[in-house]
Design brief:
Elements lengths: L10 E2 L5 E6 L11 H7 L8 E8 L1 H7 L8 E4 L5 H5 L11 E5 L11 H10 L2 E7 L2 E6 L2
Length: 143
């Protein structure tokens, strides 16, 4: 891994509150705030399950609170269908982002409803798709 990274686990929304996050492991793609999803999948995943309360914040607030880090090199968005809505509120140029991981597919392999919006938004910032793993696609800045 990248030992100098600062990893922020945040729930993004417009209402300030705390939500319970169900973790399979720290970087698992099945980590969720959706208790229904957790209940359906707990026999397949979540072998080392743990829970944590996470504060809900706006993406703007998260970015502003962490601007002293100078740039956000890697952004990973896993927002259960709200991925594009969150991505579209981020100015990737001003954050000097070089990699974005975002859910573009469902677990069955079908594209999400916002697949083309995500692709086109990232193309606008000169990102190209380099790898798809499970429901997540990894995009890298094409300099």
């Amino acid at each position: 891994m990248r030992p100098n990274d600062i990893n922020l686990c945040r729930a993004i929304g417009s209402t300030k509150k705390f939500v319970k996050v169900f973790f399979d492991s720290h970087f698992s793609p099945v980590n969720t705030i959706d208790s229904g999803f957790y209940k359906k999948q707990k026999k397949t995943f979540f072998k080392k399950k743990f829970e944590r309360l996470v504060k809900v914040e706006s993406i703007k607030n998260i970015i502003n609170k962490n601007k002293n880090n100078k740039f956000f090199d890697f952004i990973n968005i896993d927002a259960e269908g709200m991925d594009f809505k969150i991505l579209s509120k981020i100015n990737l140029k001003s954050l000097k982002t070089s990699m974005v991981a975002i859910e573009t597919h469902h677990f069955d392999g079908k594209k999400t409803k916002d697949y083309l919006k995500i692709i086109n938004f990232l193309k606008k910032y000169k990102f190209k798709l380099i790898k798809k793993f499970g429901p997540t696609s990894l995009f890298v800045k094409n300099y």
